[in-house]
Design a protein that fits this description.
The protein is mainly α. It is 33% helix and 0% strand. It has seven helices and no strands. The protein is globular, with a radius of gyration of 17 Å.
């Protein structure tokens, strides 16, 4: 797990290790509930909020992740901790309990499946945050889910709908 990169490293080849490490509790409703209970018990909610929408710590539901939003990356963030406030929970929680917390976070909808590792690093979901003129070129199923900015106009912050194009990360988990 420690070999999974925290993010893009200049000049490095993109790692695919995180795509090959599945959450052993994926799709397990009991593990999601246990993960929620641990989220409260271990005081994750003290920083991330009881709905995980953020507080002193970042929002875990918005799809923007500084250190990656796939299950293996989220596990590493909990297990090893992160600079500027995220403690390492490895001494206090065994790996199976951390995976249950990851299952709970996954259930909130802001994370990415392991197969979308690059998007999980960048916070981009294919077809989102695109200019209206680009959205018109997307397949119908993608164009229908593309949010339209207020007033229906494109914005200068829009990016092309490529899954491997970096957008400015939001909250920075």
């Amino acid at each position: 797990m420690a070999d999974i990169p925290l993010g893009d490293v200049a000049g490095a080849v993109h790692s695919t290790l995180a795509t090959r490490i599945p959450n052993p509790y994926a799709q397990d409703p009991q593990a999601v509930q246990q993960g929620h209970d641990l989220f409260i018990k271990m005081n994750c909610a003290g920083c991330h909020g009881y709905g995980a929408k953020g507080g002193m710590g970042p929002d875990l539901t918005d799809g923007y992740w500084r250190y990656g939003g796939v299950p293996a990356s989220i596990f590493n963030s909990i297990y090893q901790g992160r600079p500027q406030g995220m403690p390492a929970w490895s001494p206090a929680l065994p790996p199976q309990e951390i995976w249950k917390i990851v299952s709970y976070i996954d259930s909130l909808g802001g994370s990415f499946p392991a197969s979308q590792y690059q998007a999980g690093l960048q916070g981009d979901k294919y077809g989102e945050n695109v200019a209206s003129e680009v959205a018109a070129t997307l397949p119908a199923d993608q164009a229908a889910s593309t949010p339209v900015p207020p007033g229906g106009e494109s914005t200068a912050q829009s990016v092309a709908p490529q899954p491997d194009v970096a957008a400015a990360p939001g909250s920075g988990k």
